[in-house]
Amino acid sequence: MRVAFQGEKGAYSEEAVIQFFGEEVETVPCRDLPTVFSSVESGRVDYGVVPVENSIEGSVNETYDLLLTTGLKVSGEIYLEIHHSLLAHPEADPRKIRRVYSHPQALAQCRVYLLSRGYEAVPSYDTAGAAKMIMEERVLDAAAIASERTAKLYGLKVIERNIEDYGRNYTRFLVIGDKDAEPTGNDKTSIIFSLPHTPGSLYHALEEFASRMINLTKIESRPTKHRPFEYYFFVDFEGHRLEERVREALEGLLGKSTFLKVLGSYPKAAMP
Questions:
Q1: Where are the chain's structural domains?
Q2: CA-CA distance, 149 to 21, in Å (whole number)?
Q3: Active site residue: 5, 37, 173, 237, which one?
């Protein structure tokens, strides 16, 4: 089993892969999210794991945009609890650290901590990639924000643990592949749709779910990028696309929408 993720070895996305598929999986690092999608589409890997939202910083918009254009299906979800650590080169003097490198989401999740220490935040493409750079280039006046697992992987020292500004920091990941999952009785379905620009169109669309007592767990809007201030709606809800009431709701929504795409149905993950 080969599974692609965005980032370097030790990234939180790789932790999510291992949490879902187990220790025996072969993880395949990718420089960016489009490469994860293209790796799965080309058959170079069996699955991909991509972040879709964080409990503090919100949605990962690039993932939503890529889900719109791909032919891949969502076949699983993962909730990963995130604990950030400040990592430095083993020879670095913590008193001389001036800059901190990490992924923009990680920097944002540690904003108060960084300001309180007077560190300059420097965006990097990946948390583990920032840590790897610190070690390989022997940077002694900077640190990285990444996981404690990353420190062990690259041989960095941990300056401080749990530096995120808020507790209960979770990131939700989606598993993408060429097919979705069979019903388990405890499932979710993810869809994308757009609506005519008329009064009450969203109300009437959501009525298809409310009238059948289908619980929505997430709704997100993203610009269509074709016409100003018109949007796609990304919705997650409880139930599998093969269930009768879900099938009826989707058929009803199809008649009210200008575009509808079912991303997939998959087992609902439990929070850690």
A1: 2-82+169-177, 85-160, 187-267
A2: 18
A3: 173
Do 13 and 173 contact (CB within 8 A), yes or no?
A: yes
Q: What is the pTM of this model?
A: 0.91
Digit-coded pLDDT (tens) for 205-257? 999 999 999 999 999 999 987 778 889 999 999 999 999 999 999 999 999 99
Catalytic residue among 27, 171, 189, 233: 171
pLDDT in tens, 195-204: 998 999 999 9
187-267 fold:
Alpha-Beta Plaits (3.30.70)
CATH classification code of 85-160? 3.40.190.10
The separation between CA 238 and the C-alpha centre of its own chain, rounded to angstroms, equals 19
> What is the CATH topology of the domain spanning 2-82+169-177?
D-Maltodextrin-Binding Protein; domain 2 (3.40.190)
Among this protein's residues, is 171 annotated catalytic? yes
